[in-house]
Amino acid sequence: xxxxxxxxxxxxxxxxxxxxxxxxxxxxxxxxAEGEFVSVxxxxxxxxxxxxxxxxxxxxxxxxxxxxxxxxVNKPGPDIAFVFQNDGLMPWRTVIxxxxxGPEIQGTTAEAARRAGMDFLRMVGLGGFENHYPxxxxxxxxxxxxxxxxxxxxxxxxxxxxxxxxxxAQTREIxxxxxxxxxxxxxxxxxxxTHQIDEAVYLSDRVVVLTARPGRFKQEIIIDLPxxxxxxxxxxxxxxxxxxxxxxxxxxxxxxxxxxxxRNIATAHA
Amino acid sequence: MQDSARNLLPAADLSVKAISVAGKTKAxxxxxxxxxxxxxxxxxxxxxxxxFAVWELAARYWVANPLFLAPPxxxxxxxxxxxxxxxxxxxxxxSFQEFICGFVLASVAGxxxxxxxxxxxxxxxxxxxxxxxxxSMPVIALGPLFILWLGIGIASKIAVIFLASLFPILINxxxxxxxxxxxxxxxxxxxxxxxxxxYRKVRLPSALPYIIAGLRLSVARALVGVxxxxxxxxxxxxxxxxMSATLxxxxxSLFLAVIILALAGVLCVEFFKYLESRLAPWRFQNTED
Lengths: 270, 289
Description:
Chain A has 8 helices and 10 strands. Chain A is of the alpha/beta class.
């Protein structure tokens, strides 16, 4: 196996809530090869998003390390791009100026950044919309701009936090197919956090299942489906087999999560 | 590559159709909007006409005493008279200078102050109660004091106008700078922006609509400041014109000055509304449709 592009080593994070220490994620390790697409699934509240934020360096881990190409990551940088669930577009910037925000912050000259930004906009299917404002776009289009902005960063590693969660089911399907194409064209190494099991199976080389609070590794499933993958793949027996398997792994965690939630609310009111 | 082309096609088709449909309704809606606008204009013109007609009739046949109520026709005649002697321009020019100096100073100080006071929690905590106190204070009542301190010239007027219009700008700037969407800051942070870049590229632009709203609120207060400051003691200006008209039983001149001030207020407010719609178009998306 070649040296991993992204290596996460024994990552733990706990928060203090009053006098109680809450362990969000515990002892998470992960090795991802260059160009690999890995999804992380788990019950809600299992620390999936915290895990992504730790990798990006947006929050500091309690213990453990993250490294890219062997270099340790301590803070957000141009090595990693983060696609948030909420598009986070600046409403006062046009589509193109939102797209080139990353290069602009890095100090790239406006003209070069703009040319690259236009290419990324075309790649996400938004050529011709560069001078629109975010409020003039639909939710799906805004999410495409979000993706184009993070592609403009030029990072090899792309972290995605439920990027399509706010979209309707049909738009989501189209976006999944487009993301698949874009990741292949750009050779990105991707970690995707999602609630949608079919999304995880369809896009990934590997799916990692986390336990409910605290988030620990439960199991890893290698998705051995041929690429390129068509949306029609989702209706094949092999695909359904994978989603069933993952759902069975998650189901008890989801039930456990709901039980924990109920107990927390009960004790909070006692 | 093949499957990607297939995946792209439906999306591309959809968006092209969406544009043409949007284009058609856009043209229709634009036509309707223009008709709507000219209708609005006619309605406004009509309501002004009715207002002036009722005023004219009331002044001529009901009150029938030009000391209490001068008819608009007389106000118009007085406007022409005073314009021809150059008297009107003189008063307008003096008031205009005071207004511009006071308001521009208040804008600069209010915005700069808002930036400084939101730099840290401690600074903000110290100044917040003082700002609230000063905002609630009837600054205008201090007019005589300023004349005592700064004399009867332009300085005392500028001081009153400055204080009258400072606080809405200051408070709105502070509110705008502290109300930044945390998610936008996090996005900039994840793009490796420095604290200075986050300030310039996220917090300041997101505060801009608040700042313009503060300017719009302050304009009316500044105009009141002009009149009141001149009432307490002046040698010229629209407030002075009002006072000397009252003393000379010249009701037509009094109304003339008031109407000019009202028009100036309307013009300024409309200017800032326009500025807001240009600089912060996303804030208008709901009202436009």
